[in-house]
Amino acid sequence: MTINRRRFLHLAASSVVAPALIGRAAGQERTWRSGTPFTLGVAAGCPRPTGFVLWTRLAPEPFVSESGLLGGISGPTIDVGYEIARDDAFQDIAVRGITSADRDFAYSVHLEVDGLEPGRPYWYRFMSGEAVSRTGRAMTAPAAGADLDRLRFGTVSCSHYELGYFSPYRHLADEHPDLVMYLGDYIYEYIEKRHPTVRAHSDGVEATTLPTYRNRYAQYHTDPDLQRLRAEAPGLITWDDHEVENDYGDQWSANFIAPEQFLLRRAAAYRAFYEHMPLSPRLSRPNGPSMRIYDRFDFGKLARVSMLDGRQYRSRGACYGPPRKGRGHLETAASCPELFDENRSILGTEQEGWLYLGFAQSPARWNILGQDVMMARLRTNEGDLRDAHWTDAWDGYPSNRARVLQHISDAKVSNPVVFSGDIHSYWTNDLKLDFDKPSSPVVATEFVGTSVTATPPPEEQMRRYARDNPHIRFFEPKFRGYVSVDLTRERMQTRYRTVSDVTDPQATVSTLKSYVVESGKAGAIEG
Ligand code: FE
Ligand code: CA
How far is the CA of 161 from the centre of ligand 2 (A)? Predict the structure, then answer.
């Protein structure tokens, strides 16, 4: 008898829930076939003072057929039991109950839990029939106004399954962080053809439909390192482009699919994202191609974290067109005057207003942004690409960036720090009101994490560019890994944690660089 089975019988003996009912769809004898339906692990997200969102998905056969059939499971809804305990042995149960998994959402569970105690760890698990899921751990946020003295979190981005093993996820889990910020490119929709791979996206096709996006997430969630990280700490979650399609923005495909066609693809991609993430069903349940994921989280008086959506509401890329040979999406004032149009936005009007309201009402000493693409200016310096802007990042939305940084300065936002992903390399940046003026004040600090596995940008070219940008204090593309942050009232310590070899499933970890931001003083210093 396995430990899980013993635990289940213990539960059956003591539970207020009639266990024989768990996992049975209304009017049906059998809902899933042999084995376990908990093949994709568990996760927690959206930590609040009195609860969080718990996630799992019943998937006795993780992969969906081409026709969209969910294998080994049937029925419109299935009951799923859950337990939340104050200890990892489930001796001290806080809440126990039954929720449901809907076929319409691939039998995923998004359980919004309330009524817990603030600022403490809980352990949770799900049951279906005789199967019990693995145990996950989640912290509730401290009570509003609590004088929290420490918060530890990690940031991750750009995990391409084919390009490496997810050792960065494993090593971050080993640090037992309070939170993990997922900053985008959590999956890659395409099949790698240009770089050597260590394993394959098993269906061999680019994800473009609901079944193919579902399969991509299912495959990623069978990875033991990712499962472990998700079970270790609650996630704060945003996306970038590869959750849908490379370099898309709003309804605009980088492959020039007609917007009405592309929105069908986006709807499938967003839905599969929702089905696999511990997002709030009240806030984030998708509505066709629309899905609200930007949100903010408070950790007492210590930190307010605003997770931004840099893709869904952005204006069409400046000088929207196929990447040009030798310059990709680099455009200059001369080649693309539209770049500087004040009406162009990366956040969209509503999200930008929401962000400013969040700053105005913030109770926190540290105001942290988690978002997808690099915010700092990256000036280029060669030939007719002198002073060009990469149109897919904040550089492609210079007036929106100037407005946000001016607002941060005018509103005297307390200790603003931005965490970003997307560019597959580490960057430490001073965010300035005017990036062209060395004397312009630093108004915020930016840390850009490297990729978990995805390939870096062209090294020599980027090094030449980086040197010409005095506000860029550090750039390093060689390593894969994550970012680990230890925050107290007085200082934020940020470590760039790199793995020895992403093609080695047993890769070790070390610290490449460590920075301190002192409260009251924008800009990172080594230390
Ligand atoms: Fe990426
Ligand atoms: Ca990206």
Answer: 15
